[in-house]
Structure prediction request, 300 residues.
Amino acid sequence: MVNSSSHPCIKDGWFREISDKSFPGQAFTLAVDSILYQAQSEFQDILIFSNKVYGTVLVLDGIIQCTEFDEFAYQEMITHVAMFAHSNPKRVLIIGGGDGGVLREVAKHKGVEEITMVEIDSLVIELSRKFLPTLSNGAFDDERLDLKLCDGFKFLEDIGEAGAQKKFDVIITDSSDPDGPAEAFFQERYFQLLHNALNPDGIVIMQSSENIWLNLNYLRDLKNTAKRVFPNTEYCYTMVPTYTSGQLGLIVCSNNDSIPLIAPQRSLSGREQEQLKYYNPQIHSSSFVLPTWADKVINK
Ligand code: SAM
Prediction:
């Protein structure tokens, strides 16, 4: 065990998430029962600690990535909104996702034949498997998985240049926030790379690192950036207590302008619904419905 006051984000036994850039004037804190791991990897600062309510908490560069208590709300929505908006996904690409939660959710789709996962930091995978095993829940051993340890942006550039024949049906960008190694994922060039790697009826989804309470104009601009590449682009959100203001926005796009992203394109089997704690067809659609003031900025 590590001394629980030896990390810059921890003071008097409390972890404090503070970002004057992303959420000025506010902070989110969690009591630290014990620090399980902390170190600077080749790419980012990694902190893992335990909290009596939220269980084990993964923090990268001072920003909470997931906690055992509420991670499912994020993993299920970023995965299944895209997967059920597609009529029959066979080849899925996950960019980022080192904790394994999205991989766990994609693996629940038995019709999927190939899962490619591109994670830049092998240490996040190693530590998540050790300290947060329920996140991946064995999915890293799924025989459909092709795991690549490299930069997701460069991976997409390389397959674009190589003229890869096989494209993807669903691409999920489960990255950390724009500060740090994930910065390039929030720019137009990235949406173009996604477009080039996607099949005609393909769906892409990404975490927007913001929500309607934090920076509405940023979300409007990010959605408009996506729309310049994917005319069929929508914004939805999921509710996660340990993400700033308790929710996180998702940007969803399709190459096919006629696909109604706001509704699942296939129904869930009883078995599929039994495996899910947050996602269901009703919450899929309702997650695109915004309060009036936010709807006017983001959707008009
Ligand atoms: N649920 C979290 C969120 O919404 O912020 C994301 C969790 S996941 C741990 C984020 C992952 O993105 C990390 O494992 C990080 O290493 C990875 N990542 C960041 N930049 C990357 C890049 N350029 N290429 C591939 N993976 C990247």
